[in-house]
Amino acid sequence: MGLGAVGSEAAAALRIDAAARDLVRDPVGGLPWRSHLPVARLATDSVGLASLAIELTGAARENQSPSPAQAEGPRVAASFTSERLIRIDGEPPAVWAPLSGFWRAADGWVRTHANYPHHERALRTLLQLDPDAGKDAVAAAVAHRSAIDLESAAADAGAIVGAVRTRDTWARHPQAETLTRTPIVVTGRVDGADPRPWREVGEGPLRGIRVLDLTRVLAGPIAARDLALAGAEVLRVDSPLLPETGWIHLDTGQGKRSTLLDLAGGSDRAAFERLLAEADVLLTGYRPGALTRFGLEPPELAERHPGLVMAQVSAWGFDGPWAGRRGFDSIVQAVSGIAMVESDDGVAPGALPAQALDHSTGHFLAAAIVTALGEQRRSGDSRTVRMSLARTAQALLASADEIPGPVEGEPPTRERALPGPAARSLRYAPPVLAFTGAPADYDRVGDPWGADRPVWVN
Q1: Nearest C-alpha neighbor of 361 from the set 43, 99, 112
Q2: What's the predicted TM-score (pTM) here?
């Protein structure tokens, strides 16, 4: 079957022709997921398209014919549920914070996301809770509030709450209507740049490519990890004022280096500008408009750094009334109707068997970035790429792909000693991409968050 509905839609948005798409083969083995939506096809589509884009680019660089791309179903399943497989010194991390989850409102359900401390503080303030109040207090505070009113108040307060909707209700929402008129992958170009040459440094289809990764959970880091696996030098840049959850970096930071810079000014900003001047890709995952004050919007970037590929991912899209809202995979599932489609009884909301909106959007975004790099090298100009979790959700909801039966089996994992003087270990999911020469494991695993110098190595 090759690519399913969502993969074919993404490939068409990237102008990948039908002959090339046929190189994506059905995965070897199935996935052990039970769901009402064809989420397994979404997952394998995204991995297949990322693999194909890298394969096409590598073959073009070597002046060779591309080979088929065929992922392994068990690896895809392991990667998409990696937060359940990861073990740090043999112990699973606490993936979900106590105040994250579904709660009954006065007229329906809401879902909250409070995994980061600043989001938890905002939620407690919104609900007028003490710092040590637990789940019972949250349930009582939510129970007398309207779901939609609480969602709106949370957006104003910097908290993250999504009202659970049906798919039909979401389809009538102004943000959903905006997304319906938007391609799943939005590409663009800014005239005025000559083609950049490929740099012959390192190994892999993306050797010599330098990527600045300004993203957080989860789609952006996954896209950047794909680029690193294909040979790009990826440097993740975070603010020292926004600490990352340690296990999340271990789960998605493989293959990359990581540094901390405050872009507000001073020596950190100067260091960032030096990095940007030699970068090929800038990948950002903050809310639309959040980086405007730093001069990191595409028009300004294209003027200062002609030929740059600028990739952006957001929760709700880049136009429409919700473009600037915060959001995560779980919240988009709740709001878009996926949670009710996945309900077991039609009353209590459910969830996909993986955070598949994040993971699949990340892989599709990697495919788009690789395709944009090839186009830039062939015909010049600066390139832009945009994706959102909510648009991926709508594509999944509209998909009529057949739902394959679940396949049982133990997911594959890797284990490695963590860097440092103490004897520590990390168990993690292996890579999933299937381009020619794809590594069976990551070259860098377990490096501390923010510990690297802000310089390019190659």
Answers
A1: 43
A2: 0.97
